[in-house]
Amino acid sequence: MNKPAKSRLPDGAKARRVYLSLRDQIADGRLADGVTLPAEQKLTEIFGVSRVTIRRALDALAEAGLVTRRAGSGTTVSTSGQPNRPMAMNLATLMPQLVEMGRNTTARLLSFSYDTAPEFVARALQIESGEQVQVAIRVRSADGTPFSHLTTYVPAAIASNYSENDLATTPLFKLLELSGVQIRDAHQSVSASLAGPEVADALGIAVGSALLSLRRVVRDVDGNGVEYLSGLYRPDMFQLEMPLTRVGDGGARHWQPAIGKSSEDTP
Questions:
Q1: pTM of the predicted model, to two decimals?
Q2: Number of domains comprising the chain
Q3: Which domain holds residue 73?
Q4: Which of 112, 118, 122, 201 could form a disulfide with 164 if both were Cys (CB 3.0 to 4.6 A apart)?
């Protein structure tokens, strides 16, 4: 897999809107590799913008390695150097998949420090306000391409069992287990965010790019919070899945998460 070119958003709000719309259509397969985009004049009609705006958006897509522009041949989607199918995580089988992801991807440690837990972390972990936590920022990559920016908070009493070098070479879940933590479950929430300068630079994407935002609280068998994770993921390389099963009778029939099943197991 070739590493995609680092991209930047084009100048101007309208050009950015066109760029992001076309980029998303390419990322989710609506515009497949080899497809020729409509002519510039047609794109001006579709998006209701000027030809200059369209050119700015197409130039940015070309710079990102998503299209090829040739005089007389138009603009063609070119994703051969881009990541293939996004890495999928099934919410119904979250914990074993996290362990598997740690084995099959690599992480680069950007920072490692101890600090007072932010209030939102203290609340989530149900620890005392002002308690010390170990804070780490890592970038995780698949086949050399960064796909997630992870900030983790672990109570200092647990984190004291591993070093900065340990965290740079070993998945955090493994380190927690080696520290004697028996993980019971996790609660995860999902939303969206935009890439700030530092995150964009770490992930090799444009500032302002849309990202999948995950917040996860991990608890041990006694219900104690042992990890708070704030993760930002590239949606072109990572997706969340939730298999559903149709249950109930009559008017009470509804969709229910198929806990413990993979998407392949669900009809």
A1: 0.70
A2: 2
A3: 13-77
A4: 112
